[in-house]
Specification:
By secondary structure, this protein is α/β, with parallel strands linked by helices. Helices cover about 40% and strands about 15% of the residues.
Length: about 400
Amino acid sequence: MLRVLTLSTLFPNALQPNLGVFVERQTRGLAALPGVVLEAVSPVGLPPFPLSLHPHYAPRRALPGEEAWEGLRVHRPRYSPRPVRRQPEAIARAVLPIARAFRPDVIDAQFFWPDGPAAMHLARALGVPFSIKARGADIHHWGGIPAVAHQLLEAARAAGGLLAVSAALEADMVALGMPAEKIAVHYTGVDLDRFRPAADRAQAKAALGVEGPLVVTAGALIPRKRPALVLEVAARVPEASFLLVGEGPERAILERRAGPNVRFLGARPHGDLPALLAAADVMLLPSRSEGLANVWVEALACGTPIVITAAGGAREVVRHAASGRIVAADADALAGAVRDILASPPKVAAVRRDAEEFSWERNAAELFDHLSRVSAERHQGCHDPAFLAA
């Protein structure tokens, strides 16, 4: 019997149903395995009283402290998110009573910041081992902030094992100073039954009000995803319709700059993505950085080739010409790649082939083996500050 406490600051809830859906799916896969007892903890950041009473925080205050979510038992303790450098300690304080009651064999942290250092504090207080998974921005962004980076390294060195969503991210972790011998690559999964090619792509486009070539971009409207570059590509490929799926602070500015062939769909439920991706002729995502974007694999599973930049694990996903193109973050180069695919579309079955090894079943089995190895290591005593052990 393996008792796993999964810790994730990004996890779906009624307020944000798309938040960390890939974490939820991974966690459900692990929990479904025989011999696994799992509880999930997703801490909710709220400022101290009385600031927490501000109407802005009302939806967060309304989230239940504990609930059943897609078959999982999820705890949502509150913690103060400020100052940022102290988040791990605040999270550990909030989670410790839950962890003590559950008595895990291992703590499974889903992101390096702030989850990783928080898991380290908890593990030391409880005398159990822990693992941390790196996903991309938690390394590329937070690893460049001195007040945070030293905590990431301390947690990495204390962990019983580390996971990376791609070999490229593993290399970035090592470059940051993390121990290579502790890191294993743990690829994401994709639901091949839900993400599948459209029976008739023209009909799928018509359902979206589109005729002719269709390019879909799915990702938050934030600088790291380079949505402004997508608009430049759209201006160079006016014969195609461009649908942007996602929300973010830049939307209003982007909408003012967009041409007539661009439509913003906003945040959509994850369940809407299969139909959108299957209708597209190309999925375009010119990100500045990634670990290994789930939407890359989801698009391929739908038989839709992708045009992406050489970010993160891009070359671990696009391994054949049928899967798409990896090009420079340049509007002309990206537009050329999009036009190339539109002019000579690959066979749908050939595109889907590169997604078939990314199964959730494999993901769950590898995670179970990893956590089982980590749980065999026992930490000796409590080495954390007294406030955690108290």
